Amino acid sequence: MSSRTGRTGVGTTREGLRLLARGMREQRRFFTVAVLGSLVYGGLTVADAWILGWATDSVITPSFADGHLATGLVVAVIGLFMAVATLRALGVIARRLVGGVVNYRLLADYRRRVTRRYLELPMSWHHEHPTGQLLSNANADVEATWAVMMPLPMAVGVLAMLLVAVIAMLTADVVLTSVGLVVFPLLFALNVGYQRFLSERITRAQALRGEVSEVAHESFDGALVVSTLGRAGAETERFARVSAQLRDANIAAGRIRSIFDPVLEALPNVGVLLVVALGVERVAAGAAQPGDVVQVAYLFTVIAFPVRAFGWVLGELPRSVVGWHRVRAVLDAPGQAVYGDAAVPGAGPLALAVRDLEFSYAAELPVLEELSLDVAPGSTVALVGLTGSGKSTLASLLVRLVDPDRGAVCIDGRDLRELSHEALAGAVALVPQQTFLFDDTVRENVTLGLAVDDARVYEALRVAQADRFVAALPRGLDSRLGERGTTLSGGQRQRLTLARALVRRPRLLVLDDATSALDPDIEARILDALRRQSRSGGATVVVVAYRKATIALADEVLFLSQGRVVDRGRHAELVQRSTAYRDLVDAYDTAREQADAELAFDESRVPR
Amino acid sequence: MSTVAEAPGGPPTAGATASDRPRSTIGSGELTSGWQTLRRGFQLSPALGRGLGVTLLLAALSTIGSSVIPVVVQRTLDSGLLGPSGVDRAVVWRYVGLAGVIVVLTTGAGYLMKYRLYRASEQGLADLRVKAFRHVHDLPVLTQDTERRGALVSRVTSDVDQVSLFLQFNGLLMVTSAGQVVVATVIMAWYSWQLTVVVWLCFLPLVATLRLTQRAMTTAYARVRSSVADMLSVIAEPVVGASVVRAHAIAGRTQDRIDAAIETNLRANVTAQRVVALTFASAGVAGGLANAAVVVLGVLLGLAGHLSIGSVIAFAFLVSLFVGPVTTATQVVTEAQNALASWRRVIGVLDTPADVVDPGAAGVTLPRGSLTARFESVGYAYPDGPPVLHDVDVLLPPRARVAVVGETGSGKTTFAKLLCRIMDPRAGRVLIDGVDLREVSFASLRQRVVMVPQEGFLFDASLADNLRYGQPDAEESTLLAALRDLQLDDWFSTLPAGLVTEVGQRGESLSAGERQLVALVRAYLADPDLLVLDEATSAVDPQTELRLTRALNRLLSGRTSVVVAHRLSTAETADEVLVFDAGRLVERGRHAGLVATGGVYARLHASWVAQARLSSNVSGESAILEQ
Fold first, then answer.
1. Residues 6+ positions from B564 with CB-CB distance below 8 Å
2. CA-to-CA distance for B131 and B134, rounded, in angstroms?
3. In this complex, which of A119, A213, A487 lies closest to B153 when CB atoms are compared?
């Protein structure tokens, strides 16, 4: 990244400035207040020096000469210092607080925009982007984009401050001003150079910090493998290697800091010394008053630190631009899930028809080809096939998580693409292989905001065989799940996900290997309940399955291979005529026969 | 590993949730005071303390640079510009020259001090990081409480980073600020103790309320942190749960939740910013007050003959040395506290005793060859939890093929883990070839006993690297041979890039079943004398599994194998079946005998057969159709 910003430094700066302009424009009102505050702060900081200079010449020196201090002057000194300090404090509050508000409002706004896109973009887009990247787009990248807005009001204020300072110096003495005209630009240039140097190294350290964290994550996640293969030592070496790289990168950044920080601190002091040296000549020549010298010297002390704000803004710019590119990639991503406005009339199980379906994730690798099928209302169909045969893809097409490249999926004769999103979600439900639970209560996880009473929630939980463990949770339906809540086992998560689909009383239910993590007897009970429900006119069921028990429930089996339905019929018929099918579903039986053969030698053979 | 509450006579109830079980502890540090934490922290990272004296001395020197300026101003004014005999250039130039030399020297000292500090702190913390990482791998919590792995990761990442930030910025700032305030006070007092007291009085309210403002800031930032956590969790919904949100058409609801979390975060941030702005602003007001007091009281003191003009001006310069430290004090103290808390957490990890300790060089090295394992009255309980395994006595003879069965939570995985010394028993002992596992060196143990856990965990590397994880110098030909031996060449040929296939993070580019295959080959390559499979093929498709099981049975014939089985077909062919129920070994023997006994195994088996019967009936029908 550093080489890139190096190559296109000018372009980056221009882009960065455009980004700043965008931020200012979008938070116009707050930004203006923050800048005004900063201007007040900057101007009054200079005023402080001016007051001190004035006090030297008009209060301190005359009073020492006269031998008494006039009351009017006391009031003036206190009044001036306090007024300036109070006003400046208000400026500081406006600058820091409102400046912060600008930054935080931009963060909030862009997080909303990015997440809105996540909700609008089609699933195909989601499939193409790793979750880690999307999470960081909405968080770290948005933060990086606007980090530069935080010191911006301060930088604008400092600009004003420098201007006022030069004017103040000019009113004091032209020759002394020349020191400022040398020192300030130098200070400015050093700060910018500093932040640029540093920013490169910090970016590298940040990347390495990510690597250290990845190694730790991976190593701890694989703890069982690490320990059972006796590799803890080797893992430590691996971790030590990236840690050492991070250490060296941090030291490299530290070296830059060690050089620049003391120099930046020393430079204003050198300026003061120069002012004093030149000042003595000027006073000797009668061209300046001691107060002028004091004022200019004091200016150097008060301005030295604020000038750093420039470095912060310009140093942050390349990183902001990189963050902005990533955020823009989401905001400008083309595509949107488009829904029709048709409803699904009637009630009860739906007829499902799939016509000449074709689908591929990558252009030359078709996942489904010329796939057609019909499922009668109220029947249960099993999709059977080896891994990679396209079962899960078909399942997601049936509920329109993705759209086919060609062909159509219809329920009750209506193309899914004509339906409104609500109608679609109300009619069909998918229980996926991978479960996802929300960081919320059990009830919310099942209803997902659907207005149903607890009785109906429990009814769904009962069919999903989840009612008992939910009732056993300390707070029942109100128990919190997720990171800071109760941890559920894989099987329990699957059962909740199933209940989530059932509570909606779908008219087409698609189960994508949704019971894989369950004990066989629990699975059997769920399937039994589902079958009873579908027979009594609940839903049409399409189930992706491996287990024989699951398959045996189906009225019809579709045998998929390499994206096509290669055979279909009742389980018994398929077993009879298809060797490949028999091999697949009979694998367990084969194992059992083998066992029987071995056990034949046992004295106590039991009939089964 | 929860125990199952068995309803008498009824079907087994669902396993209790993981949260019911008491969580094993990671120490968060018993140290209460900041000093104790610092002392222990320096003890654990000796590199931090090395040369610290010199660094502190340099730090003291570097603060003099700024303090010398007010003195020069005073001297110049009093004896140069406003001197009794008019402007005295020689005096001024002498002071300026001297001060110039001092500034250059202190700048040099500043560079040395900072660079030494960066080097020492980074070295010390890198050591601490690695030490903690190594120790975490010995902590039982790592394999027992997977939900808390994230917390352990942050111990060796962000917590250590926090300490390093503290040492290099806020900690340093505390030291130099304190130095600056002390030096400024000394110089002031040397000019006029009365005026020094006045300046201190002006800043006193801020110092006195430091505790208060710091507490307000701590609360505000704690609120920000928790709002960030909430926000990140809901932002994950449309990303990780994209298909759920889409399938149930809850985009509107999701957006509302996100917007609410973002709004809460915005509010928390603004509140925190308010505290920061107020502390910053009040320091400026105190500075103004001090300046006014200095001028007015300085003149009055001067008139009384206690103070020169130059000294009064010098005071104004000295006051500015106060403003900086006071401005940042609240923030510095708040962050110092956070950093100390982080440090305490890292120390807490290191001070948590390891559960499983490698006897190392003192350990027994066992000769290779067929292996006997024995459990002697073994019991196990998670820390502060109820026992999950009681009184297990069993002998696994050499070359035996043992199947372990039982319901979820019956203790079968605990049994497997104890056998591989993933943890140590609370009672009794586990022996291999007559030697207590605790006395066997890890190098020897891990060579002889290898476990394949249920989740086929892969590292983000090539397939070859993953295969040779337990056997780092295995040749490519060895890897290919192993794939062939296990009859996986069919599967292997489907991988377009072969051995150099990148498996992705946690192996996510492969399916769950494929990951298990890789894990199995990996274990096979490690060439153990005892192989323990914990439902290691649960996600593999049945055809492949069958082939694989046959191949394994053949290849492992000279070794001992223990298979924790999900499917009872495994148990039917085993030399011995161990049946676990509610943490006890309740039955053992061969399949047929156990079925005949009519106990727990018979019940499990009946339920499994009932499942299969659903399809047997259909097959039966087909048989009829055939005739």
1. B403, B404, B405, B412, B413, B415, B416, B532, B533, B534, B535
2. 5
3. A213
Q: Is the dihedral of CA B512, B516, B521, B523 positive or negative?
A: positive
Cβ–Cβ of A337/B451 closer than 8 Å? no
* Residues composing chain B: 627
B500 Cβ neighbours under 8 A, 6+ residues apart: B462, B463, B464
pTM as predicted: 0.76
**Which pLDDT tens digit goes with each residue over B378-399?**
999 877 677 889 999 999 998 8
Tell me the pLDDT tens digit for each residue of B527-546: 889 999 888 877 777 677 77
Distance from CA of B44 to the nearest CA of A (A): 16
**B222: confidence class by pLDDT, cuts 50, 70, 90:** confident
Query: Is there a contact between A221 and B460 if contact means CB atoms under 8 Å apart?
Result: no
**In terms of DSSP bridges, do strands A428-431 and A414-415 run parallel, antiparallel, or are they unpaired?**
unpaired
Condensed to tens digits (0 to 9), the pLDDT of residues A26-61 reads: 999 999 999 999 999 888 888 888 888 888 888 888
Q: Hey, is the C-beta of B597 within 8 angstroms of any chain A C-beta? A: no
Q: Which of A546, A560, A566, A506 is nearest to A530 (CA)?
A: A506
If one counts every other C-beta atom within 10 angstroms of the C-beta of residue B79, the result is 18
pLDDT per residue as tens digits for the range B49-101: 888 899 988 988 888 777 788 888 888 888 777 777 777 888 888 888 999 99
Q: Do the chains contact at B89 and A270, CB–CB below 8 Å? A: no
Which chain A residues are within 8 Å of B420, Cβ to Cβ? 228
Measure CB to CB from residue A108 to each of B263, B446, B609 and give the nearest one.
B263
Q: Could you tell me if residue B126 is left (phi over 0), alpha (psi between -120 and 50 degrees) or otherwise beta?
A: alpha
* pLDDT (mean) for A58-80: 86
Q: In which order are the strands placed within the sheet that holds A564-569? A: A428-431, A508-512, A540-544, A380-384, A556-561, A564-569
Residues of A numbered 158-197 whose beta carbons fall under 8 angstroms of chain B's beta carbons: which are they?
A: none
Determine the distance in angstroms separating the CA of A245 from the nearest CA of chain B, rounded to an integer: 10
Q: Are A253 and A198 in contact (CB under 8 A)?
A: yes
Q: How far is CA B619 from CA A517, A545, A559, A596, in A?
A: 26, 18, 17, 18
**End-to-end distance of chain B based on CA atoms, in angstroms?**
50
Q: A65 vs chain B: nearest CA distance in angstroms?
A: 9
Model pLDDT for residues A385-440, shown as the tens digit of each residue:
876 677 888 898 999 988 898 899 999 989 999 999 889 988 999 988 778 888 88
Q: Do A576 and B625 touch (CB under 8 A)?
A: yes
Cβ atoms of A519 and A350 within 8 Å: the answer is: no
Question: Does residue B459 contact residue A217 with C-beta atoms inside 8 Å?
Answer: no
- Say if residue B464's pLDDT is above 90: yes
Tokens for B188, please give them.
């002031």
Q: What whole-number distance in Å separates Cα of residue A468 and Cα of residue A44?
A: 70
Average pLDDT in chain B: 82
Chain A stretch 288-347, residues whose beta carbon is closer than 8 A to a beta carbon of chain B: 290, 293-294, 297-298, 301-302, 305, 337
What is each CA distance from B393 to B188, B311, B411, in whole angstroms?
Answer: 81, 89, 14
d(CA B126, CA B164): 10
